[in-house]
Amino acid sequence: MARRGEPALFDAGLQLERTHLAWSRTALAIAVNAILVGRLSRHVHPHGVGLAVALALAVLAAATWWHGRSAYAPRSAALHAGVPALQPRVHLVLARATTILLFAVTALALSALVAR
């Protein structure tokens, strides 16, 4: 609680900073998976399918990182103004891309197991 004469914090729990860090961690995790898929796919899938999935994962990691960085300032301004700061369309696109790439990576892993 704020003492008399002190301004009240608009976000005492640092929600915005935690959300920003979560987007950064998610982007880093996707980028690491892109590197792993790229390295392992050279040995399992010589036709470049795995490299294409790795490239798509790298693009998704970059998009996730960019979204986390670019959304911070508008969300901060919205929180200061006391209005909702949601961007549901961007979240829906990122969720769909992540789901599609999850199925692609799973298919690559299963095809590698079957090929053995």
Automatic annotation (TrEMBL):
What's its membrane topology?
Multi-pass membrane protein
Does NAD appear among the keywords?
no
An annotated GO cellular component of this protein is:
endomembrane system
Where, subcellularly, is it found? Endomembrane system
Q: Which domain of life is it from?
A: Bacteria
Where exactly are the transmembrane stretches of this chain?
20-37, 49-66, 93-115
The chain positions of domain DUF202 read: 12-74
> Which keywords does this Swiss-Prot/TrEMBL entry list?
Membrane, Transmembrane, Transmembrane helix
- InterPro entries given for it? DUF202
Instruction: Provide the protein name.
Output: DUF202 domain-containing protein
Provide the species name: Capillimicrobium parvum
